[in-house]
Amino acid sequence: MATITISKNLIKNDDLVIIPRKEYESMKAQMAPTFYLKGKEADKLDKLVREGLKEYQEGKCKIIKSLADLD
């Protein structure tokens, strides 16, 4: 069995996770991709999110239980 040395800084901050490589690869494959937008794309999305949150706070959103409830 191999011996490894782990820094005390990693252990005291709970920043260390050890899992088998196969499990890591499986988790990585299931992970949602991350997208970074810049410029006009980012501004457009920010505006859309702001408007959606405002409508939600004003009670303009409709709560549905199934797609059949959409009019």
Structure, explained:
The chain has 71 residues and is mainly α. The chain has one domain. It is 46% helix and 0% strand. It contains 3 helices and no strands. The protein has helices spanning 8-12, 21-30, 40-57. The longest helix has 18 residues, at 40-57. It is elongated, with a radius of gyration of 22 Å. The mean pLDDT is 88.
Strand content: under 5%
Through-space gap between termini: 64 Å
Q: What quaternary form is this?
A: single chain
Q: Please describe the biggest sheet, giving its number of strands, its sense, and whether it closes into a barrel.
A: none
Low-pLDDT residue intervals, each spanning 5 or more residues: none
What order do the helices and strands follow? HHH
Task: Briefly say what this structure is.
By secondary structure, the chain is mainly alpha-helical.
